[in-house]
Amino acid sequence: IKDNSKKSVLPRVLMCLLVIILVMYFISIIAGYSPFYNNSAEKNAIVAINKDTIKIEQLIDERYEDLMEVKDSIIDTSSHNAVVDVLNNYIGSEQFGDLRFFSNGKIYDANGLEVANEYAEIKAFEGLNRRAFSGEYIDSMLSKSCVAFYIPVTGSANISGLVSIIEARNFINLEGVLNENSKALSIITDGGVNLCDKVEDGYNESIGNNYF
Questions:
Q1: How far is it, in rounded angstroms, from Cα 208 to Cα 38?
Q2: I need a surface site. Which of 114, 117, 119, 144 has the fewest CB within 10 A?
Q3: Where are the alpha helices (DSSP H) in 143-200?
Q4: How far is residue 140 CA from its own chain's centroid?
Q5: Are 124 and 134 contacting, i.e. CB atoms less than 8 angstroms apart?
Q6: What span, in angstroms and rounded, lies between the C-alpha atoms of 127 and 51?
Q7: Local structure of residue 199 (DSSP, 8 states)
């Protein structure tokens, strides 16, 4: 009886040893493979983020092309009122949103009224000689998330800069930027300002899915 019990135990011991050996073998493979896997995931992430960046840059360029159209239409205006007349043709559309213009160190709305207490995001554009856009901010009157785009105007006696204030959702549709390789996305300016975030429903934060 004792001999039979030993015989029945032996296969179990051998099976356990085999399982342990296999587990150790797979652990050694994974340990050696993980640096390669991480490098591969990082390379794929760089490719995906470059594609998304190109799409975002295209949207920004399109916004400035629209603003250039307004700029070209007002640069030869002969008076402050003439600037207002032109801007009223554009104001209110999703394409141009709310318009502001700089003149003699002051900020005016599209109706020609001085805006004394304008947002800090708009005031920051004063004196710039290059195009620029703000981070996302909340319009205190409308309680909406906005992004402001600025373009300088040179060669005009009546206007030195033009601003277009657009609801963030009208500027960029993150669902349109996301692709199958980028289920989570944040758009962050080079100054570190987070414009907006998008995480796809059901997104699983695991190695290979994440990227910055």
A1: 8
A2: 117
A3: 168-171, 174-177
A4: 22
A5: yes
A6: 34
A7: E
Distance of alpha carbon 103 from alpha carbon 156, whole angstroms: 10
- CA separation for the pair 179, 185 (Å, rounded): 10
pLDDT at 162: 93
- Nearest Cα to Cα of residue 166 among 141, 149, 189: 149
pLDDT digits (tens, 9 = 90+) for 171-200: 765 555 555 556 666 767 666 666 666 677
| Count of C-beta atoms within a 10 Å radius of residue 205 | 9
The sign of the CA dihedral 104, 110, 115, 121 is negative
> How many angstroms separate the CA atoms of 211 and 47, rounded?
11
Q: What is the pLDDT of residue 152?
A: 93
Residues 109 and 115: beta-carbon distance below 8 Å = yes
Q: CA-to-CA distance for 104 and 97, rounded, in angstroms? A: 23
Exposed, middle or buried by CB within 10 Å (0-12, 13-18, 19+), for 147? buried
Q: Give, rounded to a whole angstrom, the gap between the first and last alpha carbons of the chain.
A: 66
Instruction: Evaluate whether 162 touches 149 at the Cβ level (below 8 Å).
Output: no
Q: How is residue 27 written in tokens?
A: 């652990």
